[in-house]
Amino acid sequence: xxxxxxxxxxxxxxxxxxxxxxxxxxxxxxxxxxxxxxxxxxxxxxxxxxxxxxxxxxxxxxxxxxxxxxxxxxxxxxxxxxxxxxxxxxxxxxxxxxxxxxxxxxxxxxxxxxx
Length: 115
What we know:
Layout: E1 3-4, E2 7-10, E3 15-20, E4 34-41, E5 50-51, E6 53-58, E7 63-68, H1 70-75, E8 79-89, E9 95-106
Parallel strand pairs: 1-9, 2-9
Antiparallel strand pairs: 3-7, 4-5, 4-8, 6-7, 8-9
């Protein structure tokens, strides 16, 4: 079963967080043969999706970094969204959810002249 975590992202700001994926024996999951992808949607049924950037930061230690750049967070209207991050094992085509939750875009007040 996937972990559940709510995320708060400041509109127009870069966002990044690290997630350590555990195997069934509670040790770190080896990420060598995994493709990992994450998306944000306004609702589960929404056809429009925004992709997370996912980086394997410690393959043997099971750690990934999920990121949203400032341009993407600026393009999202303030409010609540749903998100998840999925993995696919390239050896046997099995897929599993790593993490899911609510992602809230927190509106900003400060504007720079270029935005």
